[in-house]
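Worked Example 4.2. Consider the chain below.
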Amino acid sequence: MNRKPGASQKTDNRTDHVGAQVSRLMQWVAWLIIAIGAGFIAANASDFGDQNLGSMVGVGFVIAGMLTFGAGMVVHLLDSDFGQGPRTDP
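Applying the procedure from the previous section yields the following structure tokens:
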């Protein structure tokens, strides 16, 4: 390896950031919550209405999953290097 003396070993891998890891975890959890909600809705589809507790719980899970997915995307968008200045590639 030809490195200049005193050169830093800065990696530009975005997956090393904690925010990216949290975002990825939140997206997986969101898909899990949505799948659980879809299961509740499918199990109670024969009597779909506001008096059916199972279907309403399923709708709640789907909505909660979408909100979790949105929060994960916000974490991903806010995960940046504030104050580092513009990136320059050598």
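The mean pLDDT is 78. Residues 34 and 62 are 5 Å apart (CA to CA). Compare this with Example 4.1 before moving on.
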